[in-house]
Amino acid sequence: MGKLDLSKGGANHQKATGEDDRMTTAQGHPVADDQNWLTAGPRGPQLLEDHIAREKIFHFDHERIPERVVHARGYGVHGHFELKEAIPELSRAAIFNEVGVKTPTFTRFSTVAGNKGSPDLARDVRGFATKFYTSEGNWDLVGNNIPVFFIQDAIKFPDLIHAAKPAPDRGFPQAQTAHDNFWDFISLSPEAMNMVMWIMSDRTIPRSFRFMEGFGVHTFRLVNAEGKSHFVKFHWKPKLGLQSVIWNEALKVNGMDPDFHRRDMWDAIDAGDYPQWDLGIQVFDEEFAEQFPFDVLDATKIIPEEDVPVRIIGTLTLDANVDNFFAETEQVAFCTQNIVPGIDHSNDPLLQGRNFSYLDTQLKRLGSPNFTHIPINAPKCPVRHYQQDGHMAMTNPKGRVNYEPNSWDQGEGPRETPGGFESYPEQVEGPKLRARSETFADHYSQARQFYISQTPVEQTHMANALTFELSKCQEMRVRTRMVGHLRHIDEGLAKEVADGLGFTELPEKPKAAKDPITDLKESPALSIVKNGPGSFKGRKLGIYIAEGGDAKVVSALKKAAEGAGGMVEIVAPHVGGAKLSDGKVMEADEKIDGGPSVTYDAVAVVMSEDSASRYNADKPSIDFVNDAFAHAKFVAYVPAVKPLFEAAGVWNYMDEGFFDLSDADRSEAFIEACGNVRFWDRESVKQD
Ligand code: HDE
């Protein structure tokens, strides 16, 4: 009969060709009854003998693995990276040299602080980690949607995360930084101030993963075939542009749909609307690094795009949802140490610490050094080495040789390869010491640069966010210490926050390790509003219809939104939809209380006057209109909705962000206006 084929086996819910539907245990025993535990008599005690029930419960008891200590809540998607411009002069990495080749990828987006079940729209940094399955092994670019970090040295990471996560005594608050421990730690860590500006901006409440940037954060090296090295920073630029929600929306979305971001990604990919990001590189040499006013090894600093332009070299397309969330999204293991020949690390002390941490955490989480055998982690190029055994070893090599050097014939075992990975031979010398380089001492200049690069609307949002977060701190010393730091960044901002917190005078500025540079230029690349989508592509219109609504208007709106590459959802008072003016029933995607306006980029309300009078006391209907107004959304309407708009307190305040569609042809102008994301002028208006 020969040897067993060991590549066969393992559980699968779907039958393979030629197999039947027979249910079995994990040992392959056919199961006749999966509903009743073996008992002694129909009402007697259960018997431990029941190997079928015990195996089932045993497996269930062990279903959970530890969640990630950070970035626990994440969402993974398959895709590919296509190189558009080869860069052999900079890097010998195959992935950067073969134009047009599609390298398979797996990307996982995440929030940092919340647990696996926390809501998607927590104010938090988003992880943006991509595994490239290159022909020379896996390259993991484990980045965030913010290009700087809180701390400069990895040794502080456990403290940062302890401070951000729920307090150890009370176990709350979950998935938020608005509490004493976090701001206590931050206000004692001036190096965090640049990051504080970023996290208090709307970057931490993105509209969707599809509308946010990604950054490798650290300075890495590119090394070419001659061994020449350049420094590089990696950027992901979303083709759809940048867009965030506003805080009040985030609060409501979290209650309404805690899966808002993952649902958005699933839906877009399911609909074939594949999100894309360009991969950009900022390349610079030692000479630039020497004269740059900040240390390029300090992960709390950016290099402004206006100083070193971002050069686009390829595109990432996310085009397939996972088949199984656990097997792929949960089990994927990113490691910053996964780099390929032609890419190398720099001496950034945060990056170097990460290189230890990621490998270590995978062992704890996935339980075995063989986590590379799990399909989502396994390289897609040949893998040949002499590592063996361990828990769950799936791919132990065949044959006798498992050591080297060896003198077995060619082909018996792998050999070292000329041209394999070589570290850049950077000259290193110096005393062994624990010290922070003087070149890392500037803590405020770039924080200020970020703040002055924002539009007034964004600056207001930052002041509001800081006031809100600090208002949740009960300890006065924490509040005052933080406002003291803000004075080094911008006196106006400090004053606004101090007023918001009810201070009667501004607190002292703390002593700065280095005097801030106050004349750094504005960097328009840092603003979300200045880098918005500019169109309705990839965005969602919610049309609230009710009986008698003008069918022509609804269809013109649908046509305009879909024509611009957007999605449309119909919302109605009842799940069954509503009969429109043409006598036909239009089906609804959402019932009004399941489709509030906060879940849409723009909204329209189309109903007869009778209907508008009928729903003008209905809270979800009023909220739909009122929230759309309060969140500065573009709103399309027909005049018949007056009774509802009056009840919502907006009829007398309609501005140019409202589009009267008595003339259905205005639908296109409405959708075009939505390219501006919001009618920002409205934010300062007070309603009834
Ligand atoms: Fe991470 N980080 N991190 N981090 N990080 C983890 O690795 C760590 C940092 C980032 O979707 C952990 O597999 C240290 C910066 C992402 O699976 C852990 C330090 C950046 C993800 C870890 C940092 C990141 C992680 C937890 C300070 C942006 C999610 C689970 C030196 C450039 C990856 C895991 C995924 C995950 C450690 C700082 C991004 C514990 C020690 C800076 C996107 O290893």
Give an account of the 3D structure.
The model has no long low-confidence stretch (mean pLDDT 96). 43% of the residues are buried. This protein has 18 helices and 18 strands. The chain has helices spanning 51-61, 157-164, 180-187, 193-199, 247-256, 260-270, 286-291, 325-330, 349-366, 445-452, 456-471, 476-489, 491-500, 551-563, 609-614, 619-630, 642-647, 667-673, and strands at residues 74-83, 102-111, 126-134, 137-144, 214-215, 220-223, 229-238, 276-284, 311-321, 343-344, 540-545, 567-572, 578-579, 585-586, 590-591, 602-606, 635-637, 658-660. The strands form three sheets. Strands 1, 2, 3, 4, 5, 6, 7, 8, 9 and 10 form a ten-stranded antiparallel β-sheet that branches. Strands 15-12-11-16-17-18 form a six-stranded parallel β-sheet. Strands 13-14 form a two-stranded antiparallel ribbon. Helix 12 packs antiparallel against helix 13 (491-500). Helix 17 links the parallel strand 17 and strand 18 (658-660). It has four domains: 20-61, Cytochrome C Oxidase, Chain J (Irregular); 74-373, Catalase HpII,  Chain A, domain 1; 444-529, Catalase, four-helical domain (Hemocyanin, N-terminal domain); 536-684, Rossmann fold, CATH 3.40.50. With 688 residues, it is of the alpha/beta class. The structure holds CIS-heme D hydroxychlorin gamma-spirolactone 17R, 18S (HDE). CIS-heme D hydroxychlorin gamma-spirolactone 17R, 18S binds at residues 68-71, 74, 108, 110, 127, 129, 142-144, 149, 154, 157, 217, 299, 332-334, 350, 353-354, 357-358, 361-362.
